[in-house]
Amino acid sequence: MRHLRIYRAIVMVAKAGSIRAAAEHLAVSPSALNRAIQGFEAELGIEIFERLPSGVRLSVVGELIYGPITDHLAQIDDFKLSLAEMQGGGAGQFSIAVSQDVQHSILAPALEHFRDAMPHVSLTVEQYQGPASLLDRRNDVAVVSTPEIVDGLAVACAATYPVTARLHPDHENCGGHLHWGDVETLSIALPPPATGVHMAVEGALRKHRVAARHLTSCPDGLLPPRLNPVAEVQFGLGQAGSNVGTEQLRISPVQVSVLYRASARPTTLTQRFVTLIQRQFDEDSL
């Protein structure tokens, strides 16, 4: 088990970029942590970290060994989870990266089912920062509306969602249908630029040569369920909360994909999550 403690310490130092910061998190002294890492480096005959004036970073050799270390830790954690489930418990850690236009409308129901199924699992949800967050093992899966398929990543499942709209409940078109002539007169709320909804709506605006009167970007999860208070119409994904038809706008649908690291066998938690969100995709398509 000594090596497992060293492995976890190396991962923590690599993420923090500092032995002192990692030591605080691990509740040990910086000097003790540094000695433990140096002893492990001496045992292997390599330098895992480059010591810099501002902290540390993985060396070239450290980058090579970091992957096997995190894979081994994932396998051990997966075994411990399976063992705990056999004994009637079940615990572990699971980290999800998510695009800001899916976290409220699509991911929230799947997370609720996940928590019900795995109540002892510590769950982290973070903003998607690109493929690197999966490749460097900061996150287990990513639920994204603008998937970048690069070497080392694979798609676990995917579904296509229409871009829908929510009008202010007092608007005269509420319950009816939106046309581009209506959109020109409205203040618009969109998720941030690097999201599928934002790109789909902006592409439709350019295609139909419509100039938005006022456009606001805001993460989907931070918007009230009914409407962003600074906008008259809010575009998003899925039918939840939609109160006006957008068929006449002919906005391209958005594909939501679940990505994972292809270089390692999916853990039990990853498989559970994929099963649950695939069920969510299937229900939304009905």
UniProtKB/TrEMBL annotation:
Pfam families from the UniProt entry: HTH_1, LysR_substrate
SUPFAM superfamilies given in the database record: Periplasmic binding protein-like II (SSF53850), Winged helix' DNA-binding domain (SSF46785)
Keywords: DNA-binding, Transcription, Transcription regulation
GO MF annotations in UniProt: DNA binding; DNA-binding transcription factor activity
Gene Ontology CC, one term: cytosol
Protease among keywords: no
Coiled coil (residue ranges): none
Domain HTH lysR-type: 1-59
Similarity comment: Belongs to the LysR transcriptional regulatory family.
Name of the featured protein: HTH-type transcriptional regulator GltC
Organism this protein belongs to: Pontivivens insulae
Classification of source organism: Bacteria, Pseudomonadati, Pseudomonadota, Alphaproteobacteria, Rhodobacterales
Name of the gene encoding the protein in the UniProt record: gltC_1
